[in-house]
Amino acid sequence: MRKFSTMQKILVTGGAGYIGSHTVVELINTGFEVVIVDNFSNSTPDSINGIERITGIRPSLHEADCSDIQAMQKLFFEEKNIDGIIHFAALKVVGESVERPLEYYRNNLLSTINMMQMLSEFGGKYMVFSSSCTVYGQPDVLPVTEETPRKLAMSPYGNTKRVGEDIIQDTVKASHGIYAIALRYFNPIGAHPSAEIGELPLGKPDNLVPFITQTAAGIREKLQIFGGDYDSPDGTAIRDYFHVVDLARAHVLALQRMIDGKSKATYEVFNVGAGKGVTVLQVVKAFERVTGVKLNYEIVGRRAGDIEKVWADTSLAQTELGWKALSTLEEALLTAWNWEKRVKGIKN
Ligand code: NAD
Ligand code: WQD
């Protein structure tokens, strides 16, 4: 990736979190000046130490809540000249959002509204938004392109992504000179190859790969595979898993596109995934193969709210951003395992 000669200052909201911390590393390595804001509701300052160990640079850090407008005004006033925002900060647990909808709407939507307001008030120009394949629901046709219609969200979390996209699109349309790109992530997995940063679920993981690594590490007794009767080669559900470092690179390329004046519209959307559907059992087998660890698992009933299959058509990201996933599923799984071993203190 190309280095910038004039340093752009980028605010990364949720920069201490899983995807945010990996993106901060790529931003710093590309030559951006990074400011992080995080309230540590789902992360710890340890990830900032990890970022520093990888890059040799400690980004400026504000412990604050993005949904607090006064705190954001103070941050923007103090930092001065923030050129753009990569907005990760959000609550992300689908099931929890069904139980606590107002918390999700308040946190995720107010944070997005505030970020757009800060760009308008303080003259920043670029926004990259963490959207999700959840906006497509169970699509009628696969793979999913950016033209595939969004479906009514199946959870308050999903709604915050759909409405978040709309808030950004409408604000950009009404603005003079703000550009935005929404990246619709499929299933990011893995960790930085250094094992200095990675995914750190608080409590029992919801997502497949952290559950696999925790089972392999002996933290969980058994992996339950939800659903063995789906329309797929082995009956388990299909998703599009890809390496988090590849996802981090997509953010840098999205920013570069806007900064270089290459956007074809003030608001653009790109799918980000491997472009390949893989079953849960294929993930389990790939994990066993690449790590040599045998997993204790059983196939149980379907998980409520799960879709059967989804994977991305990523040709738009490839032609327009020059992005594609470079790491294999096996490489991503190995980094996830190395990270888990480091967190748990397991020796090779
Ligand atoms: P994460 O929980 O690891 O990171 C989010 C970070 O934001 C955390 O550090 C958390 O403390 C912080 N945060 C939350 N609300 C905040 C607030 N109001 N103010 C300040 N900080 C706040 O999650 P992640 O997996 O890195 O996800 C990042 C983004 O990507 C989220 O918007 C998520 O919805 C989206 N996304 C994630 C996935 C995935 O599979 N992980 C898939 C699609 C989209
Ligand atoms: C993947 C597959 C599970 C755990 C979620 C969000 C979505 C998006 C990505 C943010 C499914 C199965 C899982 C387990 C299992 N996030 N599984 N046993 O469901 O694609 O999507 O993360 O935007 O909005 O809903 O990801 O990792 O939870 O599950 O069998 O213990 O693994 O049923 O088929 P999912 P996931």
What's this model, at a glance?
With 348 residues, the protein is α/β, with parallel strands linked by helices.
What does this structure look like?
The protein is an alpha/beta fold. 41% of the residues lie in helices and 16% in strands. It has 11 helices and 13 strands. It has helices at residues 18-30, 46-55, 69-79, 94-99, 101-122, 156-174, 208-216, 244-259, 280-291, 315-321, 329-344; strands spanning 9-13, 33-38, 60-63, 84-87, 126-132, 179-185, 187-189, 223-226, 238-239, 241-243, 267-272, 278-279, 297-300. A 7-stranded parallel β-sheet has the order 3-2-1-4-5-6-11, sandwiched between helices. Helix 6 links the parallel strand 5 and strand 6. Helix 3 packs parallel to helix 5. It is globular and about 55 Å long. The protein binds nicotinamide-adenine-dinucleotide (NAD) and UDP-4-deoxy-4-formamido-beta-L-arabinopyranose. Residues 13-14, 16-20, 37-43, 65-67, 88-92, 107, 111, 130, 132, 185, 187-188 line the site of nicotinamide-adenine-dinucleotide. UDP-4-deoxy-4-formamido-beta-L-arabinopyranose is lined by residues 92, 94, 132, 134, 187, 206-208, 211, 223-226, 237, 239, 280, 303, 306.
Descriptive tags:
13 strands, 7-stranded parallel beta sheet, two-stranded parallel ribbon, alpha/beta, binds nicotinamide-adenine-dinucleotide, 41% helix, binds UDP-4-deoxy-4-formamido-beta-L-arabinopyranose, 348 residues
Strand tally is: 13
What is the end-to-end distance? Answer: 33 Å
**Beta-strand level of the residues, as a percent range?**
15-25%
Provide the succession of SSEs.
EHEHEHEHHEHEEHEEEHEEHEHH
Give start-end ranges of low-pLDDT stretches: none
Q: Mind describing the biggest β-sheet?
A: 7 strands, parallel
The order of strands across the largest sheet is: 3-2-1-4-5-6-11
Bound molecules: nicotinamide-adenine-dinucleotide, UDP-4-deoxy-4-formamido-beta-L-arabinopyranose
* Structural class determined from secondary elements: alpha/beta
Mean pLDDT: 96
Oligomer: single chain
Alpha carbon gyration radius: 19 Å
Helix percent band: 40-55%
User: How many individual helices?
Assistant: 11
